[in-house]
């Protein structure tokens, strides 16, 4: 399947190398999703190649896909990554619990242990960084950041929970404050606040760039909002400010054979009359902005198309698949342009398998994905388990055992598995695991 899309603007892209979690929801033990590709030369177009200042070559997967039964941990893994990034970028409220603490709930010992995160990534100047965090319910336990400007790692900062003073704010609420030192300068952070988050506000030659990496590189919208009206409106506003991106999305709708050739987007005033109680004759008019989205279809007269005429169909009257394609298509094209890491929970939601495959191929294309964009998603669409589409190191599986512990593993973990193996056939036959175990229904319901 070929695509004729825009020539994307050249923007420096940062990339994720791997992400690990320990004691997070159903993942009791450490689980690592790696985007670092194996050295196989097969399907070389599926791999980004990036050299750093030492001419060290990094090979990263453009796409990773996760399969597994319902409630096996697929979404938990993606939620862990999105929650972790969000916690870095957004400041927690004073005295609030640490929002990314979410320990394994079915073991008393694990419930008393911290949740751990670790991410390796290519940051500014394609230098490798490793950022590690351990959190408890109310405080950050550990926080480490190292990087590799040369072959040996250098410590940027290392934090261990050490409460040095307690201040009272908000009517006697005790807030724990930590004094931490970076480059001989002291910084005060709340015990529930990540030190790295501090540099979203305070300038630092290196750490502000690392903060910006997390703020700008990860597109979490689709995973977080789950195709809501809010996400639709966010996508529409992006298109209103970027006419070229809008044209590209219209082209995507044409390629997807939706019979839609035009998108009509307006931001109009929505006047709501509100009755404020307790105020005499208190009827006031509140003006808000509202998105109006219509899809342009061709108009015909007795089977003959009328040139330059179109029928505008409201967004809510279109199919669920069309609505999904609008949202996910906008985010995909934006991620490709900006070289972002796009994280999607259930990419195949309401989409035909051919459309889902087309969206994946956008990331795998060397001509389209020129800025280092990456896609991480989960799905139940087994038609994507195509040995012609993916390498074995791009396909991941989750399973959950009898006590509720999730395990993450990759097809490349299977010794002797060839790249030309019929992945879908073997998966559906149960040779890889990652399938629901359904008993004989007659014995249950008889």
UniProtKB/TrEMBL annotation:
Q: Which GO terms describe its molecular function?
A: ATP binding; ATP hydrolysis activity
Q: Which Gene3D superfamilies match?
A: P-loop containing nucleotide triphosphate hydrolases
Report domain ATPase AAA-type core positions: 64-386
Protein name (Swiss-Prot/TrEMBL)? ATPase AAA-type core domain-containing protein
Source taxonomy lineage? Bacteria, Pseudomonadati, Bacteroidota, Flavobacteriia, Flavobacteriales
């Amino acid at each position: 399947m070929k695509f004729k899309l825009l020539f994307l603007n050249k923007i420096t892209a940062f990339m994720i190398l791997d992400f690990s979690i320990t004691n997070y929801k159903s993942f009791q033990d450490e689980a690592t999703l790696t985007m670092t590709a194996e050295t196989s030369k097969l399907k070389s177009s599926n791999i980004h190649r990036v050299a750093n200042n030492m001419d060290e070559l990094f090979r990263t997967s453009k796409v990773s896909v996760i399969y597994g039964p319902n409630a096996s941990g697929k979404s938990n893994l993606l939620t862990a990554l999105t929650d972790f990034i969000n916690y870095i970028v957004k400041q927690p409220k004073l005295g609030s619990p640490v929002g990314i603490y979410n320990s394994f709930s079915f073991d008393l010992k694990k419930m008393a242990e911290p949740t751990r995160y670790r991410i390796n990534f290519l940051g500014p100047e394609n230098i490798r960084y490793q950022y590690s965090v351990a959190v408890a319910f109310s405080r950050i336990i550990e926080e480490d950041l190292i990087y590799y400007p040369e072959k040996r790692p250098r410590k940027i900062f290392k934090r261990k929970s050490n409460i040095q003073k307690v201040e009272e704010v908000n009517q006697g609420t005790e807030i724990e404050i930590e004094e931490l030192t970076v480059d001989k300068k002291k910084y005060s952070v709340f015990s529930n606040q990540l030190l790295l988050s501090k540099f979203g506000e305070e300038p630092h030659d290196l750490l502000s760039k690392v903060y910006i990496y997390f703020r700008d590189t990860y597109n979490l919208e689709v995973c977080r909002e789950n195709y809501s009206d809010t996400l639709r409106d966010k996508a529409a506003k992006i298109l209103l400010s970027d006419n070229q991106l809008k044209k590209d999305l219209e082209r995507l709708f044409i390629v997807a054979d939706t019979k839609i050739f035009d998108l009509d987007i307006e931001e109009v005033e929505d006047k709501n009359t509100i009755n404020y109680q307790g105020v005499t004759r208190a009827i006031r008019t509140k003006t808000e902005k509202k998105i109006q989205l219509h899809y342009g279809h061709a108009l015909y007269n007795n089977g003959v198309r009328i040139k330059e005429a179109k029928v505008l169909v409201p967004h809510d009257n279109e199919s669920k698949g069309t609505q999904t394609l609008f949202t996910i298509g906008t985010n995909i094209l934006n991620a490709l342009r900006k070289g972002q890491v796009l994280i999607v929970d259930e990419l195949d939601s309401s989409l035909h398998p051919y459309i889902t495959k087309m969206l994946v191929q956008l990331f795998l294309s060397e001509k389209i994905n020129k800025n280092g964009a990456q896609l991480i998603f989960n799905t139940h669409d087994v038609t994507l388990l195509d040995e012609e589409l993916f390498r074995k190191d791009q396909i991941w599986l989750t399973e959950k055992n009898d006590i509720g512990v999730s395990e993450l593993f990759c097809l490349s973990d299977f010794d002797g598995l060839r790249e030309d193996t019929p992945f879908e056939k073997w998966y559906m036959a149960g040779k890889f695991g990652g399938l629901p175990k359904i008993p004989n229904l007659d014995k249950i319901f008889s």
